[in-house]
Specification:
Helix Hairpins; binds magnesium ion; five-stranded mixed beta sheet; 12 strands; 4 domains; about 400 residues; binds adenosine-5'-diphosphate; five-stranded antiparallel beta sheet
Length: about 400
């Protein structure tokens, strides 16, 4: 900078001096006679040059100045916008240090100057620390619902284009979670309340059976059938709300071979009555697994009862096979099959392809929703392959069920 200023003014001084030298060289008499005037002209020229250079430079600096001002203004505006957003936001670098945090974040975390601190020092949640560390180390954007103190947040962490920073947005979903709980409690309470009167109706209808004449027996049958249906719905609702209430699984070691043998016994009569063959296929050497025994039993009952319910002839196969450390449980049937357009919805609560057929056989539309819930609780998945008119295959993957401990 100093060097360039020196060079510029050196040339300003040099130019009139060169002019003087030139005049002196070409017209020495003129120079001698008018030396005072020539000096004055040279001086004026030097002043004009300096002024021109000064104008040029100040123009440049004022351009630079206004650019810097603009930049500063934009940064302030951006900070204002981020600060005014009601949702807590922060940006961390790849070492987990907060490089930007808005007011809402500081309010939520209770840390007044969050910038410069490690994120784990501002939010006291192990689940959040594990989540964000994973995003930082894997360099993959992700989202998750996490409880922080008394609040629930849906947290989205996105890797910025720079590849060096992660922006984290917190959406408060506490109210939503509370509403969900109210809904769950309501369903659970109603189901509990309905269970006793329904059982009483069923009991008295059974007692009446031997005491009424043939004409009224028809009405009693209708009462019994509908009561049965209601009892099924209530007990499925209770299973579902219990699953949601206790969102933990109790892993224990048990024999899947024994459990499938129980299934065969349980559905033997129903299958025989319909003339369907019931088969079990279990990989050699496969016996004990690690999973929640009660829940896996419920899952197998639901899948097998569907297979029996929606099959009129042929074979039903319950299968257990190894896939690395994972266990694959499946039921296949040669029944009605499920049309493609229904496949994506059959795991929804109360969704039934044919209401009349499901109702006829005591269906509630909750069986597969329960299956899916149990599979997800085991961090597994359930999927279906079906050909209408040919049959259906339901498969469930239970990760790590074959690990020794
Ligand atoms: N093995 C199967 N074969 C054909 N359709 C099936 C089978 N399993 C389930 N479905 C279809 O999926 C729907 C939902 O199943 P589910 O949730 O168990 O309810 P439901 O109480 O009606 O059995 C059923 O109503 C039926 O239409
Ligand atoms: Mg069912």
């Amino acid at each position: 900078m100093i060097k360039s200023v020196f060079i510029k003014y050196f040339f300003v001084a040099l130019l009139p001096a060169a002019l003087l030298a030139l005049i002196n060289f070409i017209m020495p008499e003129f120079f001698a006679e008018n030396s005072a005037a020539v000096f004055i002209v040279a001086l004026i020229l030097a002043l004009v040059f300096s002024f021109l250079i000064y104008l040029g430079e100040s123009g440049e600096t004022s351009g630079l100045n206004s650019f810097m001002k603009e930049l500063h203004k934009e940064k302030k505006e951006l900070q204002e916008i981020i600060s005014s957003i009601k949702e807590p936001i922060m940006v961390v670098n790849n070492k987990g240090i907060i490089v930007l945090a808005n007011r809402a974040f500081e309010k939520m975390s209770g840390v007044s100057r969050a910038e410069g601190k490690h994120f784990s020092k501002t939010i006291n949640s192990d689940a959040f620390t594990v989540f964000l560390n994973k995003v930082i180390s894997s360099k993959k954007s992700s989202s998750s619902s996490i409880q922080i103190d008394e609040q629930f947040f849906f947290i989205s962490a996105s890797y910025l284009d720079t590849g060096k920073e992660v922006s984290v947005l917190f959406q408060d979903i506490t109210q939503l979670k509370n509403l969900e709980k109210i809904k769950r409690d309501f369903v659970s309470n109603v189901s509990h309340e309905m269970k006793t009167p329904l059982t009483a109706i069923k009991g008295f209808a059974d007692t009446l059976e031997g005491e009424i004449d043939e004409k009224n027996k028809h009405y009693l049958d209708i009462i019994k059938r509908h009561t049965e249906r209601l009892i099924n719905i209530v007990s499925d609702l209770l299973v579902l709300s219990e699953l949601e209430e206790k969102d933990v699984i109790e892993i224990s070691r048990f024999s899947i071979r024994g459990m499938i043998a129980d299934m065969m016994r349980m559905f033997k009569k129903e299958a025989e009555e319909k003339g369907i063959e019931l088969k079990a296929v279990i990989d050699t050497g496969l016996d004990e697994i690690m999973a929640d025994m009660g829940k896996i039993e419920q899952l197998l009952i639901n899948l097998t009862s569907n297979a029996v319910k929606y099959t009129d002839e042929g074979t039903i196969t319950i299968k257990a096979s190894k896939k690395g450390k994972d266990l694959i449980l499946s039921t296949s049937d040669t029944g009605s099959g499920i049309d493609k357009k229904h496949i994506s919805r059959i795991f929804e609560r109360f969704y039934r392809v044919s209401k009349s057929r499901s109702r006829q056989s005591g269906g509630t539309g909750l069986g597969l929703a329960i299956v899916k819930h149990i599979a997800l609780q085991h961090k597994g998945e359930v999927w279906v392959d079906s050909t209408p008119g040919k049959g259906t295959l339901f498969s469930v993957r239970l990760p790590h069920a074959l690990e020794k401990d």
